[in-house]
Amino acid sequence: xxxxxxxxxPHMSGKEQQYINKAFQSNWIAPLGPNVDGFENDLKKYxxxxxxxxxxxxxxxxxxxxxxxxxxxxxxxxxCQSKTFSASVNPIVYQGALPIFVDSEPIxxxxxxxxxxxxxxxxxxxxxxxxxxxxxxLYGMPYKVEEISSIAQQYNIPIIEDSAEALxxxxxxxxxxxxxxxxxxxxxxxxxxxxxxxxxxxxKKKHLNDKALFLATQARDEAIEYLHSEIGYxxxxxxxxxxxxxxxxxxxxxxxxxxxxxxxxxxxTLQYIEDxxxxxxxxxxxxxxxxxxxxxxSKEKRNRIxxxxxxKNIENRPLWxxxxxxxxxxxxxxxxxGVSDDLFERGLCLPSGSNLTEKxxxxxxxxxxxxx
Length: 372
Ligand SMILES: *Cc1c(COP(=O)(O)O)cnc(C)c1O
Description:
Layout: H1 16-25, H2 34-47, E1 52-56, H3 59-70, E2 77-81, H4 90-94, E3 98-102, H5 113-125, E4 132-136, H6 145-154, E5 159-162, E6 170-171, E7 174-175, E8 182-186, E9 199-203, H7 206-216, H8 239-249, H9 252-270, E10 277-278, E11 285-286, E12 292-295, H10 299-311, E13 317-318, E14 334-335, H11 339-346, E15 347-350, H12 358-371
Parallel strand pairs: 2-3, 2-4, 3-14, 4-5, 5-8
Antiparallel strand pairs: 1-9, 6-7, 6-11, 8-9, 10-12, 12-15, 13-15
Helix pairs in contact: 1-8, 2-8, 3-7, 9-12, 10-12
The site of pyridoxal-5'-phosphate has 14 residues, from α3.
């Protein structure tokens, strides 16, 4: 059997160990310390200095805190892109609030502006204005930033920008993670850079990040004794893991180039097959190409390719199953146009690691060519 090709494995630079050693030497084995501060500064510099960054234990924790900061509580409604990973939605339910799912458009595969406006108007008509909009840059492709922002502004609803898959992507030269009222990043093991597990909350307002830090460290009031007047969480990032993040930040640009190179390779090698469609970058959109995805003409064809890849020990995955189709979420309101259902039927994620070799990429495309 050929060796396993993974979808999106971790890719260390070699620098991480130095930062981890520093944490051990200084005994900062805690959810605070110089690596945490350093990692936050690295991210702040990368995103632009007007952003405040708080390093957390996961992207999910960042989303949870974002909802709390916006004031989402029991029985509130929060709009969420249906085509996403479940972590975008779960924190809405942690707050006792209701997810309202909105479909995608076919250009970026993200939140559809028309459906978004239909949903907002209908929720208001039914008596409740949504408290927030969770918009996702899926697979690294930015959502339609201008259209979505302008609708959110018109109705005065804050955007939580789920940039978990899009560190390094940009729209009109501006980095993903800087568009929402609050944005989140993830450094899970499968993301473009990793701390094994981790996340960050980003905003343009210092008081929001101060509050995020307060909530993430058990909401301790300023007092000599342990004084609490609010419910807190244990969501801060470990100083050991932040050391991995610091080593990864040194090669982020390289990782983006490598992922984008995967896309170009797949595109060049497979574009002659008319039955395969790629997710192209519209003008002004720049994707980190976290995962290269393809669309096939039918579910049967997609499944045949998936099976052939599995038989050759090559990991692959259908596109995210829309949240409105998930057993746990299927009873919540949704505003659909058929796009996310169709993408789910016909789409496939190909191995996209930044450490994928030429030989491995060829193994993938050989299998696909063989099916055709
Ligand atoms: C990975 C991911 C998250 C969650 O991040 P974790 O760090 O794994 O908690 C949220 N949203 C999307 C779209 C993701 O891909």
